[in-house]
Here is the input.
Amino acid sequence: MIIVPYDKLSDLPESIKNNLPKHAQEIYKGAFNNAWDEYKDPKDRKGSASREEAAHRVAWSAVKSQYEKNDDGKWVKK
Here is the structure.
C-alpha cells in the first residue's frame, strides 16, 4: 500500500531514491506533498488524472526545473 504524502526521503518510491541525488529527492518530496494537498479536489486536476498521478507529474516537473540527465543517464544539477 502506498502511503502519501511522503514523510521522509526513505518513503519515496525506489525509482526516485535509486536515481535522483539527495537534493533532487528533497525537491521531489516537497513538490509532491504540496501538489498532493493542492489537487485533492478532482476538479482541480487536468483530465482524469488521479490525485497521485497529478502529484507525481508536479514533482517531476519541479525536479526537471533544476536537474537534467547527463550523457551517462545520471541526474545532475543544471
Notes: DSSP finds three helices and two strands in the chain. The longest strand covers residues 67-69. Residues 16-77 form a domain with the Rna Polymerase Sigma Factor; Chain: A fold (CATH 1.10.1740.70).
